[in-house]
Write the structure tokens for this entry.
Amino acid sequence: MRTVRESALDVLRARGMTTVFGNPGSTELPFLKHFPDDFRYVLGLQEAVVVGMADGYALASGTTALVNLHTGPGTGNAMGAILNARANRTPMVVTAGQQVRAMLTMEALLSNPQPALLPQPAVKWAYEPPRPADVPPALARAVRLAETPPHGPVFLSLPMDDFDATVTAAEDSAAQAAAARRVEHATAPRPETVQSLADRIKRARSAVLVVGDDVDASGAWDPVVALAERGGLPVWGAPASARVSFPHDHPLYRGELPPAIGPLTRALDGHDLVLVIGAQVFRYYPYVPGQYLPDGAELVLVTRDSDEAAKAPVGDAIVADPAVTARALAEHFPAREPTAAPDRRVRATQSEDGALPPGSALAAVAEGAPENTLWVNESPSNVPQFHQAARISTPGSYLFSAGGGLGFGAAAAVGAQLGAPHRPVVAVLGDGSVHYAVQALWTAAAYHVPVTFVVLSNARYAILQWFAQLEHAQGAPGLEIPGLDITAIAAGYGVRSVRAESAGELTKLVRDGTAQHEGPVLIDVPVTTELPSL
């Protein structure tokens, strides 16, 4: 008879989930003992960093990530990162150890008394198998749920004494059969629905296309580009996008919509039909009141997420696969020759006082980065300048957190590099943001992960200063963070670090950092503060 551990490991092998991101505790050791040679364990020094690395790994590799946390305290530490993963629509199975079953009733030390409740509502499903033999099939079910659109994290609580229990041949066979199942989710809209929408686009005086994160995530990039070109549709990125879903150097691209009701409506003024594909309608913040749409305008949303369709405050919705729908729609329009896009890339300029303007710093970074760079961004106050400088034009090349919480960037960059080892990864981080997941630097150094970290240092939470202006909250404390020395901290974690004093030096450091494969490099860049505007 085989053990639960052996059966569970075979379930994970069948799903291709042989990389485990974790920070072990005593309740996890029974799962980890005799760790097999064909599995890889990636250690993080804090649980939120562990989940952030798994998040980046899953998004960069297009696979489902596996996380192993330490019972209730570890899950609690990771909750912010799990919320980010939910907002990012990241397929992820989060496991946490649990006290032995014999001591659960008395709630002995390290018992998680309500394991299915603690991670809610950040996960799609939370479960503790009622018997040891139920662990392997529960893992198989968890993977399928994580991979069911909308993708997201699921949670399993696994008592520590379950792994040495035995399963019968029939139980083991049933678990492996469950793991071998494949479920197809590419739902196509009805032909008459596609025809009706195509007719609405043709009748519109001025239709516009808005694309969101799920275009990139669902493989709809090329069909959406074809639809825009054939239909002659100008294209906006949805507000606060976590991925790039349309080439930023395309002549039809107009930029990213502002994330507030009134300003967003003004940006769409003049259009009478708004076609939204793969985005929430809309991700608003801060609150700036106004109409949801310009006068006389209509909206149609295409989404895989029935919840997004239900909660949209305006417009019709089609719940279907974005790639299938865009491809079917494009066939209703004649082919057109695409026009050449003007070069809108920002060029770096030399600073006079030692601190670069953010736009110039980001232009210098973009100039030094290779064409196939995978970008991770967590410099919230500089997002517009980043996109102006980078002009990302290929799918799967940009990761940002949709959750609104910090701590994603540094950790996700390490995971992304592990998930896409053939691509250079450049992480652009604020000096405030980097300290939410600073322990990720140790993992990068310990595993020789060649991420190029670029820290834009202005000694403040600049994005909060922007919100303070909008919310008339000037004088709020805690928005300045002087005295940080990220190069010294990085060196303490074993990361080679340097400070860039000019745009030219920054470009060279990024070029050199992305060309090597020995390990991580951190570049500290003093920048001025330029607050965004709506």
